[in-house]
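In this notation, each integer encodes one residue's backbone shape. One such record reads:

___
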Amino acid sequence: MHKLNGASLAELEKYSSYFHEIKRGLEKESLRIQPNGYLSQANHPAALGSTLTNSHITTDYSEALPEFITSASTDRLRPLEELKEIHQFVYRNIGDELLWVASMPCAMGDEKDIPIAKYGSSNSGQMKEIYRIGLGHRYGRLMQTIAGVHYNFSLPESFWKSYHKDKNSKLDLQDFISEQYMGLIRNYLRFSWMIPLFFGASPAVCESFLKNSNADLNVLIKGTKYGRYATSLRMSDLGYQNKVQSRLNIGYNSLKEYIEGLENAISTPDTLYETIGLKQNGEYQQLSTNILQIENEFYSSIRPKRVSVLGERPSKSLKNYGVEYIEVRALDLNPFSSIGIEQFQISFLDVFLLACLFTESPPINLREAGEYQENFRSVVMNGRHPELCLMIENRCTPIKSITQELLNNLKPCAEILDKVYSTSEHQQVIEQLMVQTDDFESTFSGKIIDTIKQRGDGYFPCALDLSKQHKDSLLKEDMAEDILMKYRQEAADSLKRSEEIEQSDEVSFEEYLARYYE
């Protein structure tokens, strides 16, 4: 059995001086809703700046789905502080509207009432909008309104230079870094079910989201359906982990394999998407009729990433320059937090990712890939079942014993991070999760079901009340004038940058798109 052993305390101690330079960042989506809980029909507020160029506030799929982006920071507390500032600024500029606290959407009407995000008339802006039009045709607009939190993580170059030397690697430094990050990703995939187990927060959904879905869910309260032991419907087939892409089999055994898998999907025609057509009446319906329009269409719970220049394909950046950081995408919005995530969750992720890096990571074969995919599916739909078993080397193994062993193996990483940051948070979160292993109903998903049952009025009113409470609490807190001015200035500057991009376009959109795919 492959174990997440991490490293010994002695080895971790050797590299601990580099860990205070770990960089972290957050990306958080939230639906913008009307006071009655229905999706906002208003455009993205101009006071928030340009969605194309604002470095902190953009939109994801819809005009009503803002996305907040923090800077990458070596201060482990700064991402949450900055995310809070962004929320406070946004709440001051959306009038009586609210930010929906849950990953699964609010009361949904017809799909045509979900406004697709717009990014201006520039070539890059048009491309972003057409990509979203294509997503709507391919998967339906409802799926695109599901929200989550992404966590970005990277280690400093000084660490990599030392680690590279100690490993006596014959690879050049950047290829070594990419190889190590891909190993981290493979170990993450093997044990990623732990994230929905403890932090899954979407066990229930408003019936208005399901429409004609044949989802195998139970009635919790009239108007609310749920999985009896579900943890994260967002990460189930109802959400991003859709069956349409299950046949892609993107590999993670090397960066080369990963890039080739993506590029093959981007260049291979799909008969269904060909029937949609590239254009109708001269208007683009999607960017291409291939399996993927662009790399971001591939829904995965983790990605190797590199910051790209505007207009450069992500896979091209990865191929030319290697992996710069990894993006964890399995986090539901935490509805108990006013900003969707809490510090103890970040502390756990740091421990988990560090252990994934320092644990030997052999290639994943087809059998093992099938196992970790099935384990993930089992946990998102039945993770709180007290007798759930996961498949480990073709054997059904009780989830409680596996989880306890994994958490015990994470303790050295937790201890070393506590020493680095002069805190006890990392060891505390491991102990806290160890307690939850004895009672999975004490996890986020269990608490949400219990709260809805106690209220007796369903998922929708429960989440709406929390949305109102979080807005009130953040607006009551003072926001320093200089911080407020910083976000106002970024909004104003972003509008100017967007206009400059529009004026600088020198080729037609068709030529721009052709160059992008070259």
The chain has a mean pLDDT of 94.
